[in-house]
UniProtKB/TrEMBL annotation:
Pfam families: CTP_transf_3. SUPFAM superfamilies: Nucleotide-diphospho-sugar transferases. This is Glycosyltransferase family protein. The lineage of its organism: Bacteria, Bacillati, Bacillota, Clostridia, Eubacteriales.
Length: 252
């Protein structure tokens, strides 16, 4: 069974254009995310799925420089972009992570992959369904290629095409789904990058916790401890509302 991480990325995000290439402690946001994913014990191939637009040449160049997988496709039909990327790289299991999550913790991915592999009849596993407990920015979806292909062939609604997985979780009679919850509820925390306020917060967290010379990365729990020391962090982007598509965020 071949598992791969597909990260959707584009430069024309509406609220914060070019966000994936903004600087965080001397590296682009996308680079920081990739470096954190490399700490996964599973050592999963990473594929960047960007658009055919010239504005996204910078992302394609980045993927090639980092020796990552690369697929370029439709800007609006992100479902087709995912499906064709997974097909190109012959994936059996797809991990979906968005490019605007530079605080992502690969330990969450490892735990979820272990569960997904254990429950062999699962089509879809997510920590973002009905009872979100993780901070926004640790969002993870894992699904079979078969479920992705079924969605690609059957989904007709525009938001199902733009956001990849709505067809799966809106058709529970066709797929076996499971939700993954953390022991504590920190769903009130926003660690995704979508606005200037988000960028301000994430930069502060990196400035406090990041050490480029360390042989480890700062983990989820260390960020939570940072909030205990700096309760003002929570106010920086507390008023930002996530764009909604039944569930989920802005099209990447």
């Amino acid at each position: 069974m071949r598992t791969g991480i597909i990260i959707q990325a584009r430069m024309t995000s509406t609220r914060l254009p070019g966000k994936v290439m903004l600087e965080l402690c001397g590296r682009p946001v996308l680079k920081q995310l990739i470096e954190r994913l490399k700490y996964s014990k599973n050592q999963i191939p990473i594929i960047i799925a960007t658009t055919d637009n010239e504005t996204d040449n910078i992302i394609a160049d980045f993927a090639e420089q980092e020796s990552l997988g690369l697929f370029r496709g439709s800007e609006k039909d992100v479902l087709s972009r995912y499906y064709l990327a997974a097909k190109k790289y012959e994936l059996d299991t797809v991990v979906r992570i968005t490019s605007d999550c530079p605080l992502y913790d690969p330990f969450v991915l490892d735990e979820m992959l272990e569960l997904f592999k254990k429950e062999k009849d699962l089509d879809y596993l997510s920590n973002t369904l009905n009872n979100r407990t993780y901070p926004r920015g640790l969002d993870t979806e894992i699904f079979t290629f078969a479920a992705l292909e079924k969605s690609y062939c059957e989904a007709r609604d525009a938001d199902c095409r733009e956001h990849v997985t709505p067809y799966i979780y809106r058709n529970m009679d066709k797929f076996k789904l499971k939700e993954y919850l953390s022991p504590e509820n920190h769903s009130d925390l926003r660690w995704t990058l979508d606005t200037r306020e988000d960028y301000k917060l994430i930069k502060i967290i990196y400035q406090n916790l990041y050490d480029k010379n360390a042989d480890h990365f700062f983990i989820y729990q260390e960020i939570l401890e940072g909030y205990q020391t700096h309760p003002e962090w929570k106010e920086i982007n507390a008023t930002i509302e996530q764009k909604k598509v039944n569930y989920g965020g802005e099209m990447q």
